[in-house]
Amino acid sequence: MKRWNPVLWAAIGATLIGLSTGSDAWSATDSDRHEAWNWSGTLAAGRALEINGVNGSIVAEPGAGDRVVVTADKHSRRHDPSLVKIEVKQDSDGIVICAEYPGQGSPCKGPGFGFGGNRAGDVEVDFHVLVPAGVKFTGNNVNGAVRALGLRGPVKARTVNGECTIETSGSGEASTVNGAVHATLGHLSAKDELAFHTVNGSITLQLPPDADAEFSSSTVNGSIQTDFPVTLSHGWGPRSASGTIGRGGARLSAHTVNGAIRLLKVGAM
Questions:
Q1: Are 189 and 169 spatial neighbours (Cβ–Cβ below 8 Å)?
Q2: pLDDT tens-digit series, residues 203-212
């Protein structure tokens, strides 16, 4: 399964805000124009499901059996929602679903998929996804939140402008630029490398009480708090801290610029 360059993806998202043209714009109305989209299929545990949005939200929740169900609400006040297409790609790794804006790149088409003027600048696509147990879920976005709630497999959540919230019985990662990061993880293995990053926002991580990890963290304008005893490796200060939790193993990092970092035991909030 091809991976999308997150730096390029963020740059593409930024262009979506500023390249809207008036030739295909709809007249402003009192309410959004909507267009529904849906897809379903089967996916076995251990395989991957990836949703790539641009403008809008991504919400993932547990599904039943091995069936993936994806619904999307495309909506806009000024442009035709049908200008934004949704592509589904399936390969041996799993399923990738992408919102494709006209004249813009797409993880489903590749970074060379056209860079003409955007004719659907204010169209938002809100994805709702039902994820089978054991499936690896990734939600990538640019302008909007990513929320993966109550999942039963590994989770990755990324956006640029919006919060990331993940809850899983497995492991996970999350990053944004402008927004908070909240993560509740049910299991960490010794081979995991789990990163949680933001620039403008706080990071709150909830781990099992018996979690084992090598922990590193830093903030510029904020504080660091932990419920776990930490064996210090490079000291503990108000702006940076690192050390071993339990027996060590998983590599766990949390970094922000403007915000606090909290490392809590599950159920402590």
A1: no
A2: 999 999 999 9
